[in-house]
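pasting for ref
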Amino acid sequence: MKDQRGGIILLLIFLLFLAAVCGVAYLLRRPLLQWAGNAWMIEDPLEHADALLVLSDDNVDGERAAHAALLYQRGLAPVVVGSGRRLRRYAGIAELMEHDLAAHGVPKGAIMRYAHDAENTREEAESLEKLVRERKWRRVIVVTSNYHARRARYIFRRVFPPQVEVRVAGAPDEDFDPGKWWEKRSGIKRMFQETIGMAVAMWELRGKKEAEAEPQALVGVARLNPQHIV
């Protein structure tokens, strides 16, 4: 009887503790949710690079392309690669990216259209790694959406070889406001996609360490006349 009474008291203590934790979490829900949103936002210090790599699946306003154009106009790279999935054999997202970049002031001669069949960020990184190796680029800036920046950096720095320095720039995205992402369906969707996507990336790239940037200065900027790659 005494043991039974002791068990009931312990259960009540546990339930009271659980209720207190839930109450504190509820009271602090806004800063906690803001912290979760900001956890995906990163911005590497940017230096002159061989190319800007604009990742596929930009939003309807083309904000990745707009951000890449701004970086190009700041003189951070001589080439802007518009990476995009093929939607048809004759056209795809790369063509849309080229249009958006040109509309934001990037000269057509500086735009490199790069079409691929990647279905996720890891596959896109693997495809772009071949291009970077062929061009012998030593430093690249990956341009993606703000909510996708941390996962993109995690993946690219493990897929790309150590001799290629990867920096990431996050473009603002109207569908994801880190300060109140939970108030919009699109923000909630982005948060769950990134959380699951990061878990999958960590599993797929387990055992691969992040490449450490070489301490030496950038070895030569690519001097080339970019061609369209279809």
